[in-house]
Design a protein that fits this description.
- The chain is mainly beta.
- Helix content is 11%, strand content 35%.
- Strands 1, 14, 15, 16, 17, 18, 19 and 21 form an 8-stranded mixed β-sheet that branches.
- The radius of gyration is 18 Å and the shape is globular.
- The protein starts with a strand and ends with a strand.
- The mean pLDDT is 95.
Length: 274
């Protein structure tokens, strides 16, 4: 088998919206630079994701110089949003956590509300002190995450996706496969390892940057959402439930916490340290 390498890097500027696959990305203590720094919420601050709004899969966000984003979606004019100049924060609720974020402004709110046909707000996570502590069971003191679900980065492997698709092809919903990697919204994709090898990793080094493997990634209904049509099916959750579960968690991929900063580049070597 070939030596493991970094196959792809993905950045999602707006949580639960389609992102981009740059050739490289800077690693910050709380995740990739520009990754999940923006989030859509209800007026009361509760986040809006593809769990409630599958049509977010069809929208996209591209980073702009200076930290802004370009929003695009079917039937909507593209909108460029810069980093807010106001610094009065509002509370955003991400599952059980609450963080302080900055309103993006009326134009962004109107764009999102029109597209989703519900009242929506766009918020920006700015200052490091507003970032959330990672679950202390898996983190060291002071380690934080931005607006990702729980951990700074998510790693998947091409071999595990191939293995999963082989299982789907043998199941009751074979017509739903093969699934593309975008169902799982990873930050880093590794090539050149055995299927499911990542389940046993504890520390890895990618392009010279060491990461701790915090825990496996439990998957939700978003993975059943076709990212090109926003339609939902049964896979991959049906197959993961039968073939790749840990207790009540249906698992695909591993969550990473960076130990240092640096830059990841497609083609970087991947070393399994533990």
């Amino acid at each position: 088998m070939a030596n493991p390498v970094l196959n792809a890097v993905h950045v999602y500027p707006v949580k639960s919206v389609a992102g981009c696959a740059p050739g490289e990305a800077a690693v910050e203590p709380w995740g990739l630079a520009g990754d999940r720094r923006w989030v859509l919420t209800e007026p009361d601050g509760r986040i809006i994701t593809q769990r409630q709004q599958p049509r977010l899969a069809l929208a996209s966000a591209r980073p702009l110089p200076g930290g802004g984003v370009r929003l695009a979606a079917p039937g909507s004019e593209p909108l460029d949003i810069g980093v807010p100049e106001e610094f009065d924060t509002v509370t955003v609720q991400i599952f059980r956590d609450k963080v302080e974020a900055v309103p993006a402004g009326a134009a962004a709110d109107a764009w999102a509300s029109d597209y989703l046909s519900v009242e929506a707000r766009l918020r920006y996570l700015d200052a490091p002190e507003h970032r959330r502590p990672i679950d202390p069971e898996y983190a060291r003191p002071g380690e934080t995450v931005s607006l990702a679900d729980a951990y700074p980065l998510l790693l998947t492997t091409t071999a595990s996706l191939d293995a999963l698709n082989s299982l789907i092809a043998q199941g009751d919903h074979a017509d739903e496969g093969p699934l593309p990697m975008n169902r799982f919204r990873p930050n880093v994709v590794v090539d050149g390892v055995a299927p499911w090898a990542e389940d046993d990793w504890r520390r890895v080094r990618i392009g010279g940057i060491p990461f701790r493997v915090a825990r496996s990634s439990a998957r939700c209904v978003i993975t059943t959402t076709d990212q090109r049509s926003a339609e939902r099916g049964k896979e991959p959750l049906r197959t993961l439930a039968r073939h790749h579960r840990f207790g009540d968690r249906l698992v695909f991929g591993q969550n990473l916490i960076p130990e240092t900063t640096g830059t990841l580049r497609v083609g970087d070597p991947v070393e399994i340290l533990e």
